[in-house]
Amino acid sequence: MKSQKKVKVSRRNFIGTTAAAAAGFSIVPRHAVAGLGHVAPSDKLNIAGIGIGGKGKVNLRNMPGQNIVALCDVDWDYAQPVFDTYPGAKKYKDFREMLEKQKDIEAVVIATPDHTHALSAAAAMELGKHTYLQKPLTHSVWESRYLTKLAEKTGVVTQMGNEGHSNDEVYEVAEVVQGGCLGVIKEAHVWTNRPIWRQGMPQPLKEVKVPKTLSWDLFIGPAKMRPYNPEYHPWIWRGWWDYGTGALGDMGCHLLDVPNFALQLGAPVAFQASSSLVNTESAPVAAKVSYLFPARKNLPYCALPELELTWYDGGFMPARPFDLPLDAPMNPGGGFMFVGSEATLIAESYGAKWKVYKNGEEFTPKPKVKLERIPDDPNGGGRHEMHFVNCCKNGGTPASSFEYAGPFNEMVVMGNLAVRMQSLQKTLLWDSENMKVTNISPDEKLRTTKLLPFAEDVVTRKVERESKENVEWNAQEMCEEWVKHSYQNGWSL
Predict the structure, then answer these.
(1) Is the pLDDT confidence value at 348 over 90?
(2) What superkingdom heads the lineage (predicted)?
């Protein structure tokens, strides 16, 4: 578990080019190379955006006063408003070309679909570029572990884009928990109303012509090639297994963040799931995932025993404790609940509107611990984004560096393993060190559903009967594939 102290006295920056990447890097403190063309710590940071049409646009806007020197997106029509905002930035469609050609880039902001997060981040980090990477950090467990180790190896400044982790309420709730105000916590519940995009869908039946401004092969990247359809791009990719991680991947890094941080969860030892219909192509409409975490080292005022954490999406909600006041709010849009031996805490995302209840009434706790906050940016930038920028310039560790975010993201995306493997009808036992489910035998079969596409104007009884077929896979092989993907189309890490 990452230390809660947010600033370290030193952080190093690479001097490198593509050629240097192949030969090995020299690591030199940033201030020591100012005379070699590098800016002083107080100057602007040269930033490149990769995947800029959606959340990347917001992240760049939240880094005011910096030099946006390069912009990369596979769809130039979708990205055009950002090109217009930063007319001096060079434009690219392939981040590999951008990183090879443009030598003045010091940091990257990545907000591509989930399946290309690790590839683009690793390419930048290996060239010594500080890396701000949107949540979920990666598409798979193995990729999370890879980026965690790469961040340690390269020494670049890193930050996952779970922006609420820099909010004061995160640390307020952690103080309540770690100060022992709730007593012993053995269960936690986290929920969201997502997805708000379509899930549980078959592949589209019709092939649609690729827009001229879109490089479809670059969007596909390491995934299996399939015909273009607007059901995949620009936003609805989140629900498709090949590109996104469903509601859990989208919202888990937001809503699970405070439980992970406050309770210092680490890796689970077991997990299981139930959901609406699981199919081969897209995440289910609604799911419930339970994780079992072993006892952790006790804190001065707070015991950390074995704990069960349950995730709910698609409208599922935890049962309301009977001893809560009748009007105690549990926002169905998203939130979390800690059930302690002495009190219960309920909050919305990142601890917003948190309240504590004890003996059927609202209670005001008095924590015995004080955690360091992330400062506001004096120029009105995003607190999370500008903390990253300032650490790039002056040293220090951002709030959600890969040291923290990597292990956390492993837990988040691991939940999709449970969802996809629930036909085994067992609790899955997890060996975190080796990233392996240990209780699947070599000959076990995994059964899932392949939904068959059909024309929207031909809905008949025959279509209803023949709209799906069962698919059988080797469970061990599929589990290994979902933990560590096989990349296609020449891509590799």
Answers:
(1) yes
(2) Bacteria
Q: Which two tokens stand for residue 238?
A: 């989140």
94 found inside a domain = yes
Residues 6+ apart with CB under 8 A from 266: 1, 293, 294, 296, 407
Helix crossing, 402-420 with 475-483: angle to 10°?
150
Give the number of other Cβ atoms within 10 Å of residue 10's Cβ.
Answer: 8
Supply the angle between the helices 402-420 and 141-154 in degrees, to the nearest 10: 170
Angle at the Cα of 55 (from 397 to 260), degrees rounded to 5?
A: 45
Domain range enclosing 18 = 13-164+375-401
DSSP calls for 183-202: --EEEEEEEE----S--S-P
Residues 411-434: tens digit of each pLDDT: 999 999 999 999 999 999 999 999
| Direct distance between the N- and C-terminal alpha carbons of the chain, in angstroms, rounded to an integer | 26
Assess contact for 396 and 11: CB atoms under 8 A: yes
Residue 420 in domain: no
CATH number for the domain that contains residue 123 = 3.40.50.720
Nearest one of 11, 13, 347 to 169, comparing CA atoms: 347
Contact 449/302 with Cβ under 8 angstroms? Answer: no
50 part of a folded domain? yes
Number of domains in the chain: 1
3-state helix, strand, coil in the chain (%, to 5): 30, 20, 45
By CB neighbour count within 10 A (0-12 exposed, 13-18 middle, 19+ buried), where does 188 fall?
buried
Give the residue-averaged pLDDT of 96-116: 98
Cβ atoms < 10 Å from Cβ of 102:
16
What lies within 8 Å, CB to CB, of 71 at 6+ separation is: 48, 49, 52, 79, 82, 83, 86, 89, 90, 91, 92
Token pair for 304: 């950390």
